Amino acid sequence: MRRITRITTVGIASAALALSATACGKSSTDSGSSSSTDSKTTKAAIAYDIGGRGDQSFNDAAYAGLKKAEDELGVKGAEAEPSEGEGDADKVQRLTALARAGNNPVIGVGFAYAPAIEKVAKAYPKTTFGLIDDTSKTGPNIANLVFNEEQGSYLAGVAAAKASKTGTVGFIGGVEVPLIKKFEAGFAQGVKDTNPKAKVLVQYLTQPPNFDGFSKPDLGKAAAEGQLDKGADVIYAAAGLAGSGSIEAAATAGKWAIGVDSDQYNQAGLASYKAKILTSVTKDVSDSVFNLIKSVKDGKPQTGEIRYGLATDGVGLSDSNPEYKKMTDLIAAVDKAKKDIVDGKITVKTAP
Fold it and tell me: Which residues form the ABC transporter substrate-binding protein PnrA-like domain (predicted)?
């Protein structure tokens, strides 16, 4: 079984040693320096966001990209988990340990890594750093891997409006930050453009600096139950691991849930509820991770803003649920909306 290194506030040297001993569950003779025992082997690492691997969503999508690089490129991967209640200093230590261990690229999963990556990238100018979901920190060795979440969420809004029988749908955001507001904005616009009379219930689980809204399923479940009580029969949650709670609540009530980041219909941890996962807004986090690793391995590392949008299938809407595939009117509306966005006929808002 793959072991995941958990780096907290232990010394950087010991953290690097721990990584070299446990990365990907394989033994290694790396000394923790920037050199590798096999100079031909690319070593790549991802540092997970809140919730860690196993969230059935954002982090798992990043892991899938690393796993693909291991399988297809022969890359040696390493992973590092966050600690509850950690700050920027902890992230700096984690990223430093990964870079010092010879990993290149080192990828921070989520905007919370922005300040740490800015600092560590300057200390390791020959290492490429990937920063997912943030463009605020840039540098010659930083690749900003970003997505048009609002576009995929617009399609989810179209689907929700078409699937709803009550005319009331819900949006649950994990933490009220600008990134998640993009999901809300696109979703609400898609709903209203499809059914101007529809009602969109909006709730955020926590406010920064409290980021529990990305990690605690009970919060998502309670919020969804509240929206169900108010008549919502389709609920879309952009809340990381906490979103699994909203899926549970909606499915248990026999209503529709819309997943996020990964195709949650196909996530093993949500198998009990998959029949009621109508669709998911997908972000190609997996390929963004894979593409960055491949670019470094090929000697042409990506830098600057690397954007994934609807036109390139960098975001989209999944159609795995057989019940979804039967909804011909819904599919036609979603397909038309996608074409109109790509053609520039619809401009999707990035803020509510």
Answer: 49-333
Classify strands 315-317 and 168-175 as parallel, antiparallel or unpaired.
Answer: unpaired
Grouping H, G, I as helix, E, B as strand and the rest as coil, residue 45 is strand
- Pairing type for strands 277-283 and 315-317 reads antiparallel
What single DSSP character describes residue 201?
Answer: E
Tell me which residue of 10, 113, 133, 121 sits closest to 61, measured CA to CA. 133
Cα–chain center distance at 126: 27
Q: Which residue has the tokens 């108010």?
A: 230
118: pLDDT strictly greater than 60: yes
Tokens of 151: 């576009």
Residue 134 in 3-state DSSP? coil
The two structure tokens encoding residue 71: 């399988």
Q: What type of residue is 28?
A: S
Q: What is the pLDDT of residues 137-169, one digit of tens each?
A: 999 999 999 999 999 999 999 999 999 999 999
> Residue 306: which pLDDT band, with cuts at 50, 70 and 90?
very high
Which amino acid belongs to residue 246? S
Q: What is the pLDDT of residue 31?
A: 29
Contact 132, 110 (CB under 8 A): yes
Distances (CA, A) of 282 to 238, 287, 310, 345: 11, 12, 10, 22
Instruction: Provide the 10 A C-beta neighbour count for residue 307.
Output: 14
- Cis bond before residue 301 (omega within 30° of 0): no
Tens of pLDDT, residue by residue over 12-40, are 333 333 333 333 333 232 323 333 334 56
- What CA–CA distance (Å, rounded) separates 214 from 199? 25
Domains defined for the chain, CATH in brackets: 5-147+285-311 (3.40.50.2300), 149-283+321-342 (3.40.50.2300)
If you search the block for the tokens 């709803």, which residue do you land on? 164
pLDDT tens for each residue of 244-297: 999 999 999 999 999 999 899 998 899 999 999 999 999 999 999 999 999 999
Q: Is the peptide bond before 178 cis (omega within 30 degrees of 0)?
A: no
**Residue among 296, 177, 175, 295 nearest 243 (CA):** 175
Is the four-CA dihedral 35, 119, 55, 215 of positive or negative sign? positive
